[in-house]
Amino acid sequence: MVVSLINVSPSHASHYYASQNVSSQMQVSHWSGKLLQPLGVGGSVNHFELENLLNGRGAAGEILIDKLRLHQQQLNARDANKTPPTERAGIDVTASAPKSVSIQALIFGDHRLEAAQQQANARMLEVLEDRYAIACLREGGKRRKVRTGELAIASFHHDTSRSLDPQLHTHNVILNLQRRPDNGRWQSLDNAEIYQAKMLLGQIYRNELALQVQALGYRIYVTDQRHGLWDLEGFSDHQLKAFSTRSQQIEAAVGVNASSKTKEWAATRVTRSRKHDVPRSDLLKHWHEQAIVAQMLQITPIHPLMAQTSQELVQTLVAQSLTVLAEQGSDFRREEIERLVLQQPGQVSFADLQQAINHHPTPLIRKNDHDFSRNERQDYRSEGGELTLPTDVAITTSRHGTGSPSTEGGGTDNSDAAEVSDLGSVTGVTLETDRWAAGGLIPI
After folding, report:
1. In this structure, what DSSP letter does residue 29 have?
2. Where a domain ends, among 232, 266, 293?
3. Whole domain around residue 345: which residue ranges?
């Protein structure tokens, strides 16, 4: 259950995504993003329009970005037997569902889960577009970055892995196009912040999908709290591995104990093979035979969890996260609060989390800035500032449930589990009456 990012070239993107085997139950592809209207595209992805846009042309073929200089540099490099500069047509942000969700949807026929996967993917893309659509402008010899909040995204919904195991996933090709807000001219997308936000984007996707499947009556269990990884209750690890050929190939290539970053590299470079075109009926028959051998039974959903997020709960999770981050003793960003809260997937929606952060009483949070100031935090501490939590709620904090720091990455083979600094975990809401200051609990 991952979100992976790779740069794509025009030739790769225009031919690969539309040719994959997908379920007939759902729409194969669609456009999204605020740049669709000025680009004149929409609905299902048309191969001719996509190819033009990937090459810096409009949907009808008009030039948006002149690439003659780049193409000449590539030609000169080849003539000189040098590595030519790479032409970046876009970024493939791929969201992949947990294996248990794919099995329940594709083998046992609960196609509501396919819709849930697409809805979670769409929610992730909304956040990505709003926060990380950035153009780098040159003015008077200086460069500055401007958040445009506009992207053009071609999404392709697939349901098999390269090894033809059941695997619901969506390739979201973010075009390398931005429209300048000052003069409307087209230029390239600055993608640095998208890559930096990869971990958070993965957590948003997993969290939204967890909310969706629980609303359908399924129960989940967390397999990796640090990264917010989970699966459906009802299948054993042994049964899931029977449909995880791709993961086994990656582990065989780099080793079971390889870091998540190494496994991600292997997934995109070492073991990639072309998908084979297999008739849909034959593939379904093979999957059902595998399920029988693995003694897998269909999961029966129970009573859906439809209750709205408790304001008390989301406020408490935000407060816990602030405590953990304040103990780190360094500057922190809004995204770090979000990542800590989302380590407990399926509890609060990302929209409710934003509301709680925006309206939290602490002056540590800037309403219009993702950055938190070290000076502001130190001033707040020295003045003995306290934050009043909702009545009868106390905060406890721990790292991975132990109460002590951890510097080791979680053991996971998911490709978006990159090596990052440990932010700790937030757990354990108890019913008492306490107040807290940034840095720890202050009992009344």
Report:
1. E
2. 293
3. 311-443
Are 226 and 425 in contact by the 8 Å Cβ rule? The answer is yes
Distance between CA atoms of residues 34 and 172, nearest Å: 15
Query: Which pLDDT score, from 0 to 100, does residue 84 have?
Result: 75
How many Å apart are CA 343 and CA 31, to the nearest integer?
30
Sequence-distant (≥ 6) Cβ neighbours of residue 109 within 8 angstroms: none
Measured CA to CA, the distance from residue 298 to residue 121 in angstroms comes to 25
Backbone angles phi, psi at 136, to 5 degrees: -100, 115
Alpha helices per DSSP H over 62-197: 68-79, 99-106, 112-132, 192-196
The pairing of strands 186-187 and 220-224 is unpaired
Give the separation between CA 99 and CA 43, rounded to whole angstroms: 29
Is 233 in the same domain as 315?
A: no
Is residue 185 exposed (0-12), middle (13-18) or buried (19+ Cβ within 10 Å)? exposed
Q: What pLDDT is attached to residue 329? A: 63
Query: Within a domain: residue 7?
Result: yes
Residue 359 main-chain phi, psi, to 5 deg: -105, 10
Cβ partners under 8 Å of residue 6, min gap 6: 91, 92, 94, 268
CB-based contacts of 430, cutoff 8 Å, min separation 6 = 394, 396
**pLDDT on residue 304:** 81
* Token duo for residue 65: 């970005």
Whether 196 contacts 306, CB under 8 Å:
no
Q: Give the CA angle between residues 107, 3, 35 to the nearest 5°.
A: 105
pLDDT at 172: 95
Q: In what order do the strands lie in the sheet with 434-437?
A: 387-388, 434-437, 440-443
Residue 346 CA to residue 214 CA, distance in Å, equals 8
Query: In the sheet that 90-96 helps form, which strands lie side by side, from edge to edge?
Result: 3-8, 90-96, 166-175, 153-160, 29-32
Q: What is the DSSP letter of 51?
A: H
- Quote the pLDDT of residue 270: 53
pLDDT along the chain (444 residues), means of 10: 77 63 60 96 91 90 82 78 81 95 96 96 97 89 91 94 91 94 91 92 96 95 90 95 73 53 51 65 92 95 73 88 79 85 93 89 48 35 30 31 30 31 34 28 26
DSSP-based three-state secondary structure for 325? helix
> Do both 348 and 226 map to the same domain?
no
- The pLDDT value recorded for residue 275 is 57
pLDDT value, residue 290: 94
Identify whether 199 is part of a domain: yes
In a domain, 168, yes or no: yes
The pLDDT, as a whole number, for residue 2 is 62
At 171, list the tokens. 């390739």
Tokens of 209: 């999908």
